[in-house]
Amino acid sequence: MRGLHADTGYLLYRLGLRSGQLFNGFLQESGLRLRHYALLRFLATTGGALQRELSTRLGYDPSAIVGLVDDLERADFVERRPSPDDRRSRIVVLTEKGRSFLRDTDEAGQRVTNDLLRPLDPAERETLHDLLLRIAEPGLSRGFTEG
Question: What is the pLDDT of residues 14-50, one digit of tens each?
């Protein structure tokens, strides 16, 4: 029988836990968590998104998205605006304060990633990123189902 550390899925799980711990540690001072940060990063690449789209694209439960957006709105990092296509819907957009927060945290976020990947040389880091992107891409393009 294989040992636990021979299971790639388990190693990915452990890497995810460690990554989350490091990112949450770096975000602790701001009062945000990795899920908030991911939502902000996603919005930084779009002109805004409906809450249901955020749920699908980030793989978070819709009820979790409401709370995350509420938290970020209280911090003035995002705002809800009426959708031009459907007045009943609201689009979540990044505010200038949210953009500023992301700019201010870019370097610290990169340090966290560098600490996590310290055992790898630059070529290995690039290969790992490419492999993870290839594995994750189907879920990233259509949204994940959270388990």
Answer: 999 999 999 899 888 888 999 999 999 999 999 899 9
Give the burial string for 42-63 (b: 16+ CB within 10 Å, else e). bbeeeebbbbebbbbbbbbeee
Q: Distance of alpha carbon 36 from its chain centroid, rounded? A: 7
Q: In the β-sheet with 90-94, what is the strand arrangement from edge to edge?
A: 49-50, 90-94, 78-82
- Furthest-apart CA atoms within the chain: distance in Å: 58
- Residue pair 27/34 in contact (Cβ under 8 Å)? The answer is yes
CA 64 vs. chain centroid, Å, equals 13
Predicted model pTM? 0.80
Distance of CA 15 to the CA centre of its chain: 15
